[in-house]
Amino acid sequence: MGKRKGSGRATITDVAEHAGVGAITVSRMMRDPSKVSEKLRIRIEKSIKELQYIPDPKARALASGRADVIGVLIPSLSNIIFADTLRAIHDSTQNTPYQVLIGNTRYDAQEENHLLSLFLAQNPAALIVVGIDQSDNSINLLKEANIPVVQIYEIGPDPIDMSVGLSHIAASETMVEHLLNQGFCKIGYLAARLDPRMERRLEAYRTKLNSLEIFEPKRVVLTNKASSVNIGRKLMRQLIDCAPDTDAVICANDDIALGALFECLAQGISVPEQMGIIGFNDLEMMQAAYPSLTSIRTDRYKIGTLAVDKILQRLNGDETDQKQIDTGFELIQRDSTSRR
Amino acid sequence: MGKRKGSGRATITDVAEHAGVGAITVSRMMRDPSKVSEKLRIRIEKSIKELQYIPDPKARALASGRADVIGVLIPSLSNIIFADTLRAIHDSTQNTPYQVLIGNTRYDAQEENHLLSLFLAQNPAALIVVGIDQSDNSINLLKEANIPVVQIYEIGPDPIDMSVGLSHIAASETMVEHLLNQGFCKIGYLAARLDPRMERRLEAYRTKLNSLEIFEPKRVVLTNKASSVNIGRKLMRQLIDCAPDTDAVICANDDIALGALFECLAQGISVPEQMGIIGFNDLEMMQAAYPSLTSIRTDRYKIGTLAVDKILQRLNGDETDQKQIDTGFELIQRDSTSRR
DNA sequence: TGACAATATGGTAGCGCTACCATATTGTCA
DNA sequence: TGACAATATGGTAGCGCTACCATATTGTCA
């Protein structure tokens, strides 16, 4: 008798003995049934069912040197934006052998680097990271890992491997242009704690307004606190106090936009007549708000789906021609900015 | 030379050789430094640093028969409610060796059962599941697994092992009583696709109103679609059409409550004068809304924290006296129901 | 029909750890 | 100082798979 107690569950050896075949044949049959004759296939399948055999992924990973794991590093677990993409990633891996492992970087490059080391120690099949602002250290780890890597949400000039996202600069410019087209000209900006993508949008707004010589620093209201609807209200209140002639606000995201709307409602400021409001992400609530809120729609579910698609393609050996996918964005115009 | 290529990274054997000790001593030192003399400890630590050694969790798990993994099965990835708890679980496991593995059951008992089998094949250290309505099959798997199991969000009469949550029946009764106390008496109910906890709350509302002989079926508006702010608007519209004399609504969650508020704003129905609105969960936006929205605060972060605490206690060998924790709830009264 | 290729199956060793046991070293007490 | 316990360290085998190679079986063609 062995001196080491196993898990108690059936192993591949049990199945092999039960079916009267070699263990390796069972292994083959599980990974690619076409490599085993029909006769044995049926016998093995029967044994698997009878013994309720479920392969042990960690033994598999140890033996093959590759875990059927896709690591995902996201900056926040309680941000619905990332949750939408996570859902897509889970959905897309649903009928594959791949398991999703989530790491929360808390918007911290060092934490990202640390998690990356931990994840790589598990030989993941692929990795998904958010944004294009990884530390040099992380970039090296990712490149040396020699596995498919997808950067999501933003596309930039020099992807580590593949990327799926959009240009936040272009999106920001579109927001400004839309407001100008609607006749707004004293355009403010509300933003809470900035992530790199928000920073890029804010910067693009500044650049754009500067180029038109209509940029006024007093209309930019920032805080270091995390985004929230309440913060949106506070920022709006502050803006109205400091620059009461402001006629529209670009909000760093939809939560802030909703807060801005509530503050206008509370102060009796009519939207869009006295104040235009535009958000970013187009959360579902933007359409339901009254007045409904204009926003930039970003297809976060699609980003996750495409990221996994790219990864699976590569893992299946298909070289991708397209290393960078621009998922674009769409300005959804609603009441909150419709003046004409 | 070995015929099998390793990962390329340093292994425990490399560290052992480098430090001039046995591999098992390195293993010991990593898991419990106090079991190794200071002399060797320092030497091994130096070697670990120089070789940048990171232990391979899957090899560790295979050898020890137990993975440092806490499995979490949640019904939805894009529901902020679960995200809050997930964040707590991640935060609480941050400085432990445990990794969090998330499964998305999509509110489907069969999928839950399937994921459970897959998770158990990995010998997780513990499991967290949502609610108390697991299938018999799942309950058996969980009991046979012989590991700490925590059911979260709801507490019931017969926990599988441990549970951390609240009584949704009591919460619902509190909502009804609050509305009655505020002078509302024609109380409606708006709900989208029901999960078991929502069902329990709806049922408690029915029972309560029936016992007071003021229950009227026409005031209950339901749909099979998923909860959303837009659905909240639609349900409210429907309620106003079918039962225009309704003077307050209990909403299955905050999204629906926010939608109900917007519909009232759109129709010029004053809140709370003509219509009281109460939500459930107390999302951050409830406070920021105008008028602000009454809701039941549930401490979702704390639920996650306590669940992990209980698990870590048990994994450390401390038997818990308290197998069931009632995290309670708090009715946060705001403008939307404040009549007096 | 024989030579060879293609296909199907299996044995062995090894992935990187730790459980289990053995042994060497140190400390404690009469 | 000797006997024994406590402490520190190490060797070996095994966790449950699969890579790699070997061999048996079948098919194909001149």
Describe the structure.
Two copies of one chain form a homodimer. By secondary structure, chain A is an alpha/beta fold. Chain A has three domains: 12-55, no CATH class; 68-166 and 300-328, 3-Layer(aba) Sandwich (Rossmann fold), CATH 3.40.50; 168-298 and 331-337, Rossmann fold. Helix content of chain A is 45%, strand content 16%. In chain A, the strands form two sheets. In chain A, strands 2-1-3-4-5-11 form a six-stranded parallel β-sheet, with helices on both faces. Chain A has a six-stranded mixed β-sheet with strand order 7-6-8-9-10-12, with helices on both faces. In chain A, helix 1 (12-19) crosses helix 2 (23-31), helix 1 (12-19) packs across helix 3 and helix 8 (168-181) packs across helix 9. Chain A is elongated, with a radius of gyration of 26 Å. The interface between A and B is large, with 53 and 53 residues. The first copy, chain A, binds a DNA duplex (30 and 30 nucleotides) through residues 2-7, 11-13, 21-25, 27-28, 31, 35-37, 40, 55-65.
